[in-house]
Amino acid sequence: MPVRLHITAEGQTEERFVKDVLAPYLGEQGVWADARCVLTSKNKRAGAEYRGGFRRHSAYLTVKADICAWMKEDRHPDVRFTTMFDLYALPTDFPGHAAAAAEQKPYEKVRLLEESLCQDIRGELDDTRFIPYIQLHEFEALLFADPQRLDWEFLEHAAPIQRLVAMVAAEGGNPELIDDGDTTAPSKRIAAEIPEYAGSKATSGPLVAGKIGMNVLRNKCRHFREWLDMLIALGAASRVQGGNGSGVHG
Known about the structure:
49% of the residues lie in helices and 14% in strands. The chain folds into 2 domains: 3-136 and 221-243, Rossmann fold; 139-215. It is built from 9 helices and 7 strands. Helix 1 packs parallel to helix 7 (196-212) and helix 8 (214-220) crosses helix 9 (222-243). The strands form 2 sheets. Strands 1, 2, 5, 6 and 7 form a 5-stranded parallel sheet that branches. It has a two-stranded antiparallel sheet with strand order 3-4. The chain is globular. Strand 1 (3-9), helix 1 and strand 2 form a beta-alpha-beta unit. By secondary structure, the chain is an alpha/beta fold.
């Protein structure tokens, strides 16, 4: 039986990417994925919830409560939970934020944050079904895996797109190493070259990622690939254990 995977996405762009691109891919691997945007606030009087996008400061406790609530709602042992959060502009009260800020190596920085998040969520619930993931440095790094594909959405932008291609080459071809500066993060660079992207990122970003394709994203984005490998392994383990009459546990 396929594993079910609940993904807490930072915003609408990540949520749409999961639903349109990642979920079909994982479905072929025996993992049924769904997603919802992270809870940012509630209006108890109106009975309304607001989802999507972190506040820069003091947002983590709301995020944590939302993840834990979902895990309590679905306690089935064959369900897994994960996140798709951007390293860029991560809330300052996020677990491990101070230690990560002192770390210069991007992959070590994100490892520290993921380990801290994992310990905090699993420790709160004594539940090992949580798998943390933080995107280096944000969703748009995936688009830098092949920025030429932006021409599917943004016609007559040949020169700006070529400048984006050159930016990846300057990082040795690794889009995950494009930094997280306020004006130089991946999304900021795209918007600087293609201003229309800023107003359409929730639809254009996932569409372009789909045109790039999961195989290219895997090959060009190491940390993203490591996450995918963990998720795919869930499906493989389920098939093996399902043959023995049991599901995924632990």
